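sry for the spam today, last one i promise. struct tokens for design, 202 residues
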């Protein structure tokens, strides 16, 4: 039969062994630093692995930057230097106009109205009215102006660069031009065939 002090000593001995075992487990786990101590090269560091002795490798031919390849400034800014472009940088097609109308009705018509008069629904409810697209200043504005305003905003208009992709911004700008033509083309500017079609419609 063990006395009380012997039992205490045995318990202390067992606890000490358990503590040491746990400490050793934690220590050995913490020493596994394979990711930290892996073989690697710092940027621009010399390397004996490659024949050219460079650790930084050249770009693989045909590689394209993802999401940042904006080398066509006219397409992505609507400008050449400090001047707005005057010609649409993408082909005008029925599909482009349809896309422009769809995007215009989603993002623009709430303020500008379906015909671009500046009398959209939230304007009718008290929001400051934007200028009509049919005033002379905007009819004669270069098409790059509309792309720039959609991209960066203007006055109380919020920038739409994060909401509308560049090609959709051009589609909207193209549709704005179509709206301007639909409301401001003079009969004298029409061809003979177009005038006959117009007269036949009445």
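last one done:
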């Amino acid at each position: 039969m063990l006395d009380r002090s012997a039992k205490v000593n045995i318990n202390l001995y067992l606890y000490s062994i358990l503590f040491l075992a746990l400490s050793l487990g934690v220590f050995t786990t913490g020493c596994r630093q394979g990711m930290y101590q892996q073989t690697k090269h710092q940027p621009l560091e010399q390397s004996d692995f490659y024949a050219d002795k460079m650790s930084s490798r050249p770009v693989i031919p045909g590689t394209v930057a993802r999401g940042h390849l904006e080398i066509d400034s006219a397409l992505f800014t609507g400008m050449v230097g400090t001047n707005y472009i005057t010609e649409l940088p993408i082909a005008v097609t029925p599909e482009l106009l349809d896309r422009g109308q769809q995007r215009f009705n989603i993002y623009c018509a709430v303020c500008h109205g379906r015909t671009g008069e500046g009398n959209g629904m939230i304007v009718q409810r008290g929001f400051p009215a934007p200028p009509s697209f049919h005033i002379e200043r905007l009819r004669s504005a270069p098409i790059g102006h509309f792309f720039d305003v959609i991209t960066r905003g203007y006055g109380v208009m919020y920038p739409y660069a994060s909401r509308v992709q560049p090609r959709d911004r051009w589609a909207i700008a193209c549709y704005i031009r179509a709206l301007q033509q639909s409301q401001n083309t003079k009969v004298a500017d029409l061809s003979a065939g177009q005038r006959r079609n117009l007269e036949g419609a009445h």
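The chain has a mean pLDDT of 86. ok im logging off now
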